[in-house]
Amino acid sequence: MKKFLKTAEGYLYLAPTLIILGIFVYWPIVSSFQMSLTRVAPFGGAVIDVGLENYQRLWNELISGGEYYNNLKVSLLFTLGTVPTGIVIAVALAIALAYPLRRLSWLHRLLIFVPIVISSAVTGVIFRWMYNPAVGYMNHWIGLLGFEPVNWLTSKDWALVAVTLAVVWRQLGFNVIIALAGVQNIDATYYEAAKVDGANLWHRVRHITLPLLSPTLFFLTIINVINSLQTFGEINILTDGGPGQATTNMIYAIYVDAFVGTPFRGYASAQAYLLALLIVIMSIIQFRGFGRRVHYS
Amino acid sequence: MTMPASSSKPRRKIATTDLVMQIFLITVGLIVAMPIIIAIFTSFKSLQDISANPNTLFPREWTWDNYITAWNATPFGRYLLNSFIQSGIIVLFQVLFSIFAAFAFSFLNFRGRDLMFYLILGSLMVPFQLTFIPNFIMVSELPENCRALFGEGAAFCSQTGANTYFGLTVPFLASAFGVFLLRQFFMSLPKDLHDSAQIDGASNFRFLWQIVVPLSKGSISALSIFTFLSAWSQYLWPLIITNDTEMRTVQIGIRFFLANQERGTNWGALMAGAVIVMLPTLLLFLIANRQLVKGIAMTGLKG
Fold first, then answer.
1. What ranges in B53-199 are assigned the alpha helix state H?
2. Looking at residue A25, what DSSP letter applies?
3. Which residue of A has its CA nearest to B113?
4. Architecture of domain B74-260
């Protein structure tokens, strides 16, 4: 009896968390799969069981170069654009920030970390203005560097670059904080030993900092890939998925299919299932690819 | 202690390197913060100033006009209220429920405890993309189902569903991350505390409130700050679950403020709106940035 009461008490403390997560995280795994096997009839709105038809349709679009092919391509290009750029900049800044300066280091950190508190909606609005060809700063700035003005948001070639820049910026604060923590974890004795051996700055970065930072880089890569596959707010505000479908990534297509105009929630759920699967697979591939080269000290 | 300064070289060289690093870091810092800085300055520019001198940094003359225009054109007051209520509810319940669960995992012994821990942790792997459509349907249908359950007269049923604070917040009232974060801290507290509390005849609940919570103020406030930041910044869920202007959060409000004036966008007013939206989190950052940065570095949690 006493044991039963003890168990009951434990579950009482867990109950609120278990109930919320059960209803809003675990149950949807099931119900969203069920929904992905259905379609709403055009007249009357009855829900029809269609088996794997939605998945079949996605497969056909994929191999025929249709919409789903486009969305997958946009997601992957976006990931390839944001993740390496974001991490390289973050690591370079982290190495610079770790340089022991006596003055103003609080100010450097404040300025570089500040994007962590900026939401994707605000990022979208500010960058939308910066990209404006008439009153925005972006073309002015690249003009100072000698480049021609660019139609950031209305050109098919540049829209994805524009979204990429905005998202790299918003993620920068977070990435630098994680990278800096990694750099500061490296034991100073390694550097001292290298200095005795006469290694210059580049050698120290190349042969000490980067290898010892590999667990951090590994973590950053996974988090950034997952975040970039989930990027929604900036796209919604900057380009609305356009021009054409140039910035419609997988999550944006899911949103449009499920919530804009006539809802196709079965079809959207099938896409959501595949995106979730992709996120899990990506993590596994990266883990195996990186795993061999990661140095755990 | 970390990056290699050439400390064995003569002093003058160090001073030069310091100066170079100082200039480099200030420059880079200003570049990174530039979008925020120019948004703030532009929000104080007059309309003529923005169109005539789009590329100057400082306003010719400072004016509050854009704030007045933004405030009158769009119910920002209501949006701010909604966002504070929405974020407040999420912080309150997420922190409270996380304290309960973390307490059970670190101080109580019962059957199935470890399994439950992995079950809760596992929810972190389920991406939001998979859950938001079924959750939208479930929350939208809540009022109907509520009336079916409690009868047509049940007034509280109209406070569930889309366009309500309940609907805005209910999927986020618990979080595996909060449980994990607090459990890590609770585990570091000495077990003797619990033993002696039991000898004194204190119930577990009293032990939690009078001993554990006061000792964990730091972790609990760090969790509250993170939760507030992420709740305040939410976008996709508030976008789909509200279509009534009165119930929009600031993030959705600013999006529609932009969308509704597409003919001739008043960028000054829009930047004033952006400043209004980011001000609370910006202030939080200025006040608590050390705690925030330390917390992110320790947990890898995204704010």
1. 65-73, 76-107, 113-122, 128-140, 142-150, 165-169, 176-187, 192-199
2. I
3. A10
4. Orthogonal Bundle (1.10)
The pLDDT mean for chain B works out to 86
Q: Using only C-alpha atoms, what is the Rg of chain A?
A: 24
Q: What is the mean pLDDT of residues B181-197?
A: 87
**Interface pTM, i.e. ipTM:** 0.87
How far the first Cα of chain B sits from its last, in Å, is: 28
Test the A interface: residue of B22, B51, B133, B261 with most A CBs within 10 Å: B133
Kindly state whether B107 is in contact with chain A, defined as any CB-CB distance less than 8 angstroms. no
| More confident site: B67 or B124 | B67
CA distances, A274 to each of A1, A32, B130 (Å): 47, 11, 9
**Amino acid at position B248, single letter:** R
For residue A21, give the nearest of B101, B20, B278, B143 by alpha carbon: B101
The shortest C-alpha distance from A157 to chain B (Å) reads: 23
Looking at chain A, which residue has its C-alpha nearest residue B106? A10
What residue type is A220 in one-letter code? L
**Chains A & B: contacts with CB separation below 8 Å:** 295
Q: Where are the domains of chain B?
A: 74-260
Condensed to tens digits (0 to 9), the pLDDT of residues A43-97 reads 666 777 887 888 888 888 888 888 889 999 999 999 999 999 999 999 999 988 9
Residue B169, both tokens: 């917040």
Nearest of A217, A188, A197 to residue A296 by alpha carbon: A217
**Inter-residue contact B65 to B48 (CB < 8 Å):** no
Is the CB of A168 inside 8 Å of chain B's CB atoms? no
Q: With an 8 Å Cβ cutoff, is B80 touching chain A?
A: no
Mutate to test the interface with A, among B3, B135, B194, B256 (most CBs of A within 10 A): B3
Query: Of the spans A256-260, B93-97, B150-154, which averages the highest pLDDT?
Result: B93-97
Cα of first residue to Cα of last residue in chain A, in angstroms, is 49
Tell me the C-alpha distance between B155 and B144, whole Å. Answer: 12
Q: Residue A295's pLDDT is what? A: 47
Q: Cα–Cα–Cα angle for A112, A118, A122, nearest 5°?
A: 130
State whether B273 and A125 contact (CB < 8 Å): yes
The answer to whether A203 and A190 are in contact (CB under 8 A) is no
Amino acid in the structure at residue B44: F
**CATH top-level class for A65-291?**
mainly alpha
Question: Does A287 contact chain B (CB < 8 Å)?
Answer: no
The residue type found at A167 is: V
> Would residue A181 be called left, alpha or beta, if left means φ above 0 and alpha means ψ between -120 and 50 degrees?
alpha
Q: What is the predicted pLDDT for the residue at A171?
A: 93
* Structure-token match 């705690």, residue found: B291
Q: Between the CA of residue B216 and those of A40, A249, B187, B209, B213, what are the distances in Å? A: 51, 42, 11, 10, 5
Residues contacting B9, CB < 8 A, separation 6+ = none
Cα separation, B68 vs B47, whole angstroms: 13
CB interface of A with B, residues 64-93, below 8 Å: 93
| Calpha distance B51→B285 (Å, rounded) | 32
Residue B271, chain A, CB below 8 Å: the answer is yes
Compute the radius of gyration of chain B from its Cα atoms: 25
Domain ranges of chain A: 1-36, 65-291
